Amino acid sequence: MLLNKIVSIKLLLPVGVIYNYRTMKLPFKTYMITFLLFASCAVTEKMLVEMPVNAETREEFIAALNEVLIDTRAYAGCREAAIWINEQDADKVWIYEEWQTRAHQEAYVAWRGETGNTSHLGPYLNGELRFLWLNER
After folding, report:
1. 16 with 6: CB under 8 angstroms?
2. Residue pLDDT, tens place only, 4-60
3. Which domain range does residue 73 map to?
4. Same domain (yes/no): 125, 79
5. pTM (two decimals)
6. Which of 58, 60, 64, 113 has the greatest number of CB atoms lying within 10 Å of its CB?
7. In whole angstroms, what is the distance from residue 125 CA to residue 92 CA?
8. Distance between CA 44 and CA 79 in Å, rounded?
């Protein structure tokens, strides 16, 4: 749900004069400016998907995963999906994701389950996926 907020501000123009945001009276013209901010646009849900993989086939897995992430990035509500690795953990791959809402991510996971278009990744996995929601402090 989008929450709209109308924000009242005054602009400080380079000449050092503060103009009223409603009338923006300048010597020869009158301007009306209304600023709408969508509160939900500022909020982003962040998560890590931890995937235990077979170390010997990790690079093959990453190549296949990059193909899958094309659809992920195009899915409604997805703002980012990037693959991360740690050189000292050869048996793990992480996807860092940003979603507009958790509901968007849950709908995406359900869609993946319905389509079965990630089943080819199964042989690369060596355990259960972990979905870790992140909270900034």
Report:
1. no
2. 444 444 444 444 445 455 555 554 443 433 333 344 455 799 999 999 999 999 999
3. 44-134
4. yes
5. 0.68
6. 58
7. 9
8. 8
